[in-house]
Amino acid sequence: MHRATQRLLLILFHVYVQVAVGTYIAPRASDTAADACRAFRYTKPGVASTTAPSQYFHAGDRVNIVNPSSSIDSTNLPAFCRVQLTVVTNPATNKTAGAELWLPLNWNGRFLAIGNSGHSGGAVVEDLGFVAVAQGFAGVSTDTGHNDTSGGTPWPLHNDEAIIDWSWRAMHVSVVVGKMVVTTYYQQAVNKSYYIGCSTGGRQGLKEVQMFPGDFDGVVIGSPANWMTHVQPWSLHVNSLVQPVNSTRWIPAATWQNLIHNEVLRQCDGLDGVEDGILNDPTRCNFDPSPITCNSTNSTNCLTSTQVHALMQVYSDYIEANNTFIFNGLYLGGELDYPNALVGDHVSDLALYYERYFVMNDSSWHVSQLNLAAIQLGDRLDVGHANAIDPNISAFTNAPHNGKLIHYVGLADQLISPGNSKLYYNSVKSFMQANALGDIDNVYRLFPVPGMKHCKVPSIPLDKRLRLANIT
Ligand SMILES: [Ca+2]
C-alpha cells in the first residue's frame, strides 16, 4: 500500500476511534473567521498599513490590553478581530498616527468611532470592547498621533504636527481609513456611521461635525472641552480662587462635602419638588451663603468672609479685565466631588500643560502669569485649531446629509462648567435661526443630566453603564 494512502487510512481510523469514544472535537465554526482575521493585512502606501499581526478573540476569550491611556481586562466580549494600523495623517511630512479597529464576528453593519480623553495618546481599548464590539459595531479609535507616557519631554512642546493630530487630524484620518479597512475586511460597505465621546471626545466629535460633516450619520457627545482656549484658563482661575492650601481663602474638602453641600441642598434641593439630594436645575436656586458665614455667635462650623467670597466666585462666571466673559462657573449641587477636581489642593495638570506646551511653548510658564492678554493670545493662536466652537453645523444637520447630534452634560460636572454645553447649544440654535437654516430640535438635542458628574454616572460599573446607554 502506498505510504500516503497508509497515512490517510491511519488518520481516518484515528478520527473514527475519537468519534467512537466521544473525544473528537470538530473545528470551531468561527475558526474560519479566526484564520481570516489572523491572515488579514492592509497596506496602502501613503495612506495606512497594519503594524502588527491581527489578533482574533473567540467569544469569552480573555481580552487583556493596556496602553498609556486605556485598558481592558474582560472575558465577556463576543468574538472579534483586533486590527492595529498606522495611518498617515500628513503625507507632506510623513506624520503618522496609530489606530485600532475592533471588528466583531457578528457585525451589525455599522461603524462606531470612539473619542479620546484629556491630552493622552493611546487607543481607547476599553470602549472599543465595551461599547463597540459588545454591541456589534465595527469600532475605531485613534491614539491621537502620539503615545505619551508620563515623564520625559512633553509631547506637544515645539511639535505642531503632533498638536494638529491631537486636535482633529488623527481622528478624521482614522475614520476615513477605518471605513476603508472595514469595507475590505467584511467585503461590504459600512451601512451607518456613528461617533461617541465625552470631554476631549466631545470636542473631537464637535470638530468632526463642524469640519467633516460627511464622516458620521449620528454623533453623541458629552460635556465637550470644545472651547479649549477658555476652559483651560478657567480651570486655572478656579484653582486660584481657593489655592494655595492653607491660605485664608482655602476651603477644605470636608467643608465642601458637609457644610457647603448640606446648605446648598437645604436651600435648593426641594425647588424641583423632590428632596432627593439632586438639583434638577441648579440655575433656579438663588443660593445665600449667609447661614454658613461666621458671625459673632458662630465662629467654628462656618466660612469666613474671605472663604465666602471665594465660594461665590467659584459659582460665578469668570469675567476678566474689561468685563470680558471667559467661562461659566461651576453649578450648585456638585460639592461632593468639587474638592477632587478644580477646587482641590493642586493646580489642574491638564490646564497648566495646555498653557505651557500648547500655547506658550514655555515649560516655565507659571499660573501667576494668567491674565486677559494670555487668554487672548490663546484665542488668536487657537493652537492646532483645537477649538470646536463653530455654530454653523448645517452641513452636518441639513439636507442632503441630514446628520443627528445628541449632546449630554452632567449638571454636577466638576471639570467643565455645564454652562459651556448650554452656551454652545444656544450659539448653534441662534445661528441656525438667524440664518434661516431651520429649527434644530429635530437634528440637535441637548440633554442636561441632573446630579451627573463629568462624563460619569457614579456607582454603576462601566460595562453596565455602557449597556444602559445602548445607542443601537
Ligand atoms: Ca431635588
Automatic annotation (TrEMBL):
GO terms for molecular function: feruloyl esterase activity; metal ion binding. It comes from Punctularia strigosozonata (strain HHB-11173). Belongs to the tannase family. It is an enzyme of class 3 (hydrolase). Keywords: Calcium, Disulfide bond, Hydrolase, Metal-binding, Serine esterase, Signal. Coiled coil: none annotated. Pfam families: Tannase (PF07519). Its EC number is 3.1.1.-. Residues 1-22 form the signal peptide. This is Carboxylic ester hydrolase.
